[in-house]
Structures are given as C-alpha cells and as structure tokens.
Specification:
single chain; OB fold (Dihydrolipoamide Acetyltransferase, E2P); 5 domains; 23 helices
Length: about 675
C-alpha cells in the first residue's frame, strides 16, 4: 500500500499530532492565530502555483496548528465565563443535562451551572459538574430540572493510590471539573426547562423503554442485558453478571457502541437492499432511509458519545459508497474521525474512540485477506468463518491497547464474540420492534419471547465461558513503549504473511527478543522488590506489604470482601508490581484486646491503633497508623513515645484529623493525613 493513496489519513495524523501537543503541554499563545493565518496563505499560494511539495507541507502544518488551537478552545476551563474562573460564590443555579444514574445510595447526574451568586449579585456563568442526590431524601431528578444550590461544589480529587485509575482526568476530558454531594437543605428545585428537545425526547424514550422491558422481562439478568444492549443503560446489571461478561471478553456488548450500530446497519442493509434495484434512484433512497433510521436510533439511545461516533462513521461509509463506488475506505474512516475530532478533540483520548477505530481498521485491513484463506461452500460454515475472522481481526488490533488499559485478556474471545454477535442479531431487532409494537398483544408477546430467550442464552454462554479454565489472563501491565512495540510486531507479522519478505520477520523477531529481555529484567527486579504502602480507602484503610511477587494485604473484613475496593484502589498497583500471589489478612486476627496491631516489615516497626486508646504509648516505632478516632490527644498518648511518622487514615472524623494535625505541629511531630496526601509508600532495601 502506498501512503500517497490516503491523503485524508495524512491530514488526520497531522491534526492528531496537534491535539496531542496541546494535551501534553497545555500551552497556548495568541501568535498561534498568526501562524495559522500565515500557513493558510502559504497553502493558497502553493495551490495557485501548483507546488505539490509546498502544498503538502503547509497543509500538514496548518492542520497541526489547527488541532492545537481547536483543543485549546474546546477546553472549557480556558473560557473566562467558566465557573472555576469566578470569584468565591455562595449559591449557584444549575440545570440537569443528563439522565439520572442510579447508584447504591445516590442519584448521579450531570448538570450545567447557569449562574452564580457572588458579592451580593448574580452572574451568568457556564461549566459542567456532577451532582449527587441522596436517594432517601430526594426524588429521582429529571432532565431539565433547575436547582438553586447552596455552597460551592468541590474539586474532584486526583488518584490517591499508586496506579489508581485517574477519575479526575477522566472527568476533565468530559469537561467536568467539580462535584457536589447534596444534602436535603442545600438545594431547592425552582423550575424545569429541557435544554434540548431532542435530548428530552431521548430521555423520555429511555424511560418508556425501561417500563416496557420491565413489563415483559421478569428475570433481572435478562431485563438488565436487554436494557443495556438496546438503550445503553446498564445500572440494573448485577456485579456477578458484569464480571461474567468481562471475563468472557464480551463486556463491550453491554453498552450501546459501534457494534450495535454496525449490527443495525447490516440488518437494515439486508432488509432494504431491494430498494437499490427496484426503484429509480434506489441507491440514494436506500442511503437516505438507512441514515434516517440510524440517526433515529442514535437519538433514541441518548446520543451518547459511543453511539454518536459509530453513527457518524457508518454515515460517512454509506455516503462514500453512494457517491463513489470506488471509494477508499481508509480515507472515509479518516474523514469521519476528522469530523468527530473537530466536534470534540478530547475524544482522541477516549478509550472507546480508540478501540472502535482500531477494530474497524483491523476488520477492513485483514478481512479480505483472511477471507481468501478458506472458501467454504456451505453457507452456514461460511457465515461462521466470516464471523470468526471479523472477531479475530478486531481483537488482534485492539488486544495490546485493551491490555494496556484493562490489564487482562479474554482467552476465549474467538468463542465468545461469535455467540455475542449471533445473539445480538436477534436481541437488537426484537427489542426495538417490541418497543414499537408493545401495544399489540400477540405481536408483543412473540417479540418478547424472542428477546427473553436470546438474552437468556447469551447470559448462559458468558457464564459457561467464564467458568472455563484460564478464561481470563490477568495481571498484565505494559508501558507505552511496550504497547508501541507490540503493535509494531503485529504489523510486521502481517506484512510478512502478506508479502513473504524475510525482512519483516527478522524485525518482528528482533522486537520480540527485545521485549523478552526487557520482561526478564523487569521480572528479576520485581522478584527482589520490597514495599510497604498505607493505602487511602474512603472511610477505611489497608496496608500492603509487598515482598517479591507476593503481597500481604491487611485490612478489616469489610474491605477484604469488597471487590470494588480491590478493583479501583489496589488492582492496578499490584499489576504494575507484578504481584501474582495475594494474601488477604483480616486485621481482627492480629489485633490485641486494645485494638492494637504490631507489624514488622524489613526492620520497620509499625503500630496500628484501631480502637479508642486513652493510655500512653511506650517505646518507639517507625510508623503509627491511627484509625477509627483511636487517639484524640497526641500530647498525652505520645508523651513517652518516639516515632518517625504518624499516619491518620480516612476512617477518622474530619474535625479530629484537623485537630491532630494542629497538635502535631505544636508538638513537632511528623504527621500526614491520607485524605490529604494519598497513599504513603516506603520502599525496602
């Protein structure tokens, strides 16, 4: 393949470089505008004088600068009207701009701040925040509800444990810079006005779909899967089922994404293909009908970013096919990506965006070649073969990135994904038709039976695959250089099989040897590591003692039994350190009657107080960990005791933490609060 055949791909790469440059530097200057204007002038001159080299260079540089400037302007915190750029305010008015997500104790919604009250006057402003309403105190907030809220929202905390998922950056990429956990007397609903009639219609359709699925699907798992696959809401799926889909490599099916839009596109193409040949201007009529139905589905599912991206992608593909039968699919994909990144450059760092385009590129690039390897004459076998190679191509191109982000790999993806695709071809059409014909007794019953059994069989398939030996390979942790090396190996391997040139094989083997040597060195380093970490866990605490590739995690039974705590606060940390042997130890088994635990790690003495302690500590220790308001007076408890550091975890009351910090300053004791500093780690010899 010659790169000259893909001009739009080149332009896309230049814009991506500009976006990444801003995201890495966050630098901007007004001279960028003059630079862009100068490059535009050079581009026009090069076009006029037919100078291809100058035209290509100036176009790429212009797109690079455009990507940089565009990302700066799309970073809403850079706008002077953003609420974070205002003075301290006492009240603010916000409007709900999303459907409520039901959490265990709260309703979580996105809201747009419209105005703030500062210095005795109201001031118009902007900016998105997260609001949390207590379920026991409030009704479920609706899209368009307007609230008057007291006090300022709080900033979103950065990761407080090593390797922890950066939730703050995740929200910043979505334009959200603050959150507010509301108490009953802190807010008042003062109105209701939907910001967008399209979104209002979409959210009402979601509520209607929820009521229909509840009426026809009695089983919770079947109802949860249908709701997730058809309207993109998975708040009713229990953790066990979610883990089953994750382990089998089918988790992507539980949120409306490119696969769902693709299936709908295929179904519509099959059902409406007769229009192309039997009606005048059939191709255009077919395209218009398909695009209208795709965008209707996108609106129905709430125009989420994943659906919007997929719908734009398939719209460009269909338009390209209609306009030019000899279209270049890579240029069309590049045009769709350019359009999406112009709308929101932050989608570039969205995992779903990256995986969607990699999967499509893998399918487009490998499918024609793999399809020629075997040519079954039996239609059923051929369909299975084509489904298998589509899954393989998509997984091959997304596997390194999935491992980089999620630290695991589904071993049986080639088994799971064809089943997922097969059942999806029944679930999506049956579910959508059920929503349309729910008022027709016999038809709705028939469609509900198809939907119920399809969801049931899909769930059972994932349960079976999850229980297979080594269904999920876990514990991976790769760096960006390793990620790039794996993609280089994949492309070199493909090039070798396609062109039969040994140079590609030699390069791929060389890279594999380099990776193997690096991993051997990393494994050696990890086998000798020793690290003590006091973790930040909201209203709890835990200690990790890493020795080689083993860890002893000490905490109370509630923390140990909570899988969510492990996944969010600990898993990435252990994966990064290559931990393969986990020992979960209940602190109750090691504490004495006074609630004190004595630990020793590489000669470091640790005292952990878990119950109120009014006595005097004696002797000395390197670290003292205070939990559950154990000590209220440092001067009394530490009068005859020496320690390098006092650590206060988040299970202590906020006012007590502040009191202890002030006391420690006056007594010249070293103290840290995990709530403020995050986890505290000590590396052994």
């Amino acid at each position: 393949m010659k790169f000259n055949a893909f001009p739009i791909v080149r332009h896309l790469l230049c814009m991506i470089a500009g976006i990444l440059a801003y995201l890495q530097t966050h630098y901007f200057h007004t001279t960028f505008y003059y630079l862009g204007a100068g490059l535009l002038l050079i581009l026009l001159i090069s076009i006029f004088f037919h100078n291809a080299v100058l035209r290509g260079i100036s176009a790429c540089l212009l797109l690079f600068v455009s990507g940089w400037v565009l990302t700066y302007h799309k970073t809403i915190i850079n706008h002077s009207a953003h609420f974070t750029n205002q003075a301290t305010f006492t009240h603010y008015q916000a409007i709900i701009i999303s459907n409520a997500e039901i959490k265990s104790k709260t309703y979580k919604v996105e809201a747009e701040i419209q105005q703030v009250r500062a210095v005795e006057k109201w001031q118009e402003t902007s900016g998105k925040i997260l609001l949390y309403f207590n379920k026991t105190e409030a009704q479920r907030p609706q899209y368009g509800d307007v609230f008057l809220i007291q006090h300022m929202p709080s900033e979103i905390d950065p990761p407080k444990n090593p390797g922890e998922f950066d939730y703050r950056q995740f929200l910043h990429n979505k334009g959200i810079y603050a959150q507010h956990f509301l108490r009953q007397k802190e807010y008042l609903q003062i109105g209701h006005k939907a910001p967008s009639q399209i979104f209002d219609l979409s959210y009402k359709a979601n509520i209607y779909a929820d009521s229909v699925f509840k009426a026809y699907l009695a089983d919770k798992n079947e109802y949860g899967v249908a709701k997730a696959m058809i309207v993109g809401m998975r708040d009713d799926i229990d953790s066990e089922l979610l883990e089953s889909y994750s382990a089998s490599g089918a988790i992507h099916v539980l949120s409306v994404s490119g696969m769902h839009v693709g299936i709908l596109f295929i179904v519509l193409s099959v059902l409406l293909k007769w229009i192309k040949t039997r009606i005048k201007y059939g191709n255009w009529i077919f395209t218009i009908i398909v695009l209208i139905l795709l965008w209707t589905y996108a609106v129905f599912t709430g125009l989420s970013s994943t659906v919007l991206r997929a719908t734009v992608m398939f719209s460009f593909i269909q338009m390209g096919t209609t306009l030019n039968r000899r279209h270049n699919i890579y240029n069309i994909l590049a045009v769709s990506a350019l359009a999406l990144l112009c709308y929101n450059p932050y989608w570039l760092v969205d995992v779903g965006f990256q995986l969607s385009y990699l999967a499509i590129i893998g399918i487009v690039y490998l499918h024609p070649y793999l399809n020629q390897l075997i040519n079954p004459t039996n239609s059923i076998i051929r369909t299975l073969w084509e489904g298998t190679i589509v899954c393989f191509a998509a997984q091959l191109f997304t596997a390194p990135l999935s491992i980089y982000y999620f630290h695991q790999f589904p071993s049986y993806f080639l088994i799971a994904n064809p089943f997922v695709a097969f059942f999806s071809f029944f679930i999506l059409p049956a579910g959508l038709l059920l929503l349309i014909f729910s008022w027709v007794p016999l038809v709705s019953t028939f469609l509900a039976i198809i939907l119920k059994w399809s969801c049931f069989l899909l769930n059972q398939t994932t349960f079976i695959i999850e229980k297979m030996p080594l269904s999920t390979l876990k514990g991976f942790s790769i760096s960006i250089p390793e990620l790039l090396a794996w993609y280089a190996i994949i492309f070199l391997g493909i090039a070798f099989f396609r062109h039969s040139e040994l140079k590609y094989l030699r390069l791929s083997v060389l890279l594999l040897i380099c990776l193997a040597l690096f991993n051997m060195y990393e494994d050696y380093q990890q086998s000798r590591q020793k690290q003590l970490t006091f973790h930040f866990i909201p209203r709890q605490t835990g200690i990790s003692l890493i020795d080689g590739k083993s860890v002893a995690f000490i905490a109370d039974s509630g923390v140990i039994a909570n899988q969510k705590i492990y996944n969010f606060h600990l898993k990435n940390y252990y994966d990064k350190h290559g931990v393969s042997n986990h020992n979960l130890l209940n602190i109750a088994a090691y504490a004495n009657k006074q609630g004190i635990t004595f630990l020793d790690f590489e000669g470091k003495k640790i005292i952990w107080l878990q119950k109120p302690f009014k006595g005097n500590l004696q002797g000395k220790a390197n670290y003292v960990l205070l939990s559950n308001n154990a000590i209220r007076n440092l001067a009394h408890s530490f009068a005859d005791f020496q320690t390098e550091l006092i650590i206060v975890d988040d299970s202590n009351k906020s006012y007590l933490i502040e009191k202890l910090k002030h006391e420690a300053d006056s007594l010249r004791l070293n103290i840290i609060a995990l709530r403020d500093m995050g986890a505290y780690s000590v590396t052994g010899n």
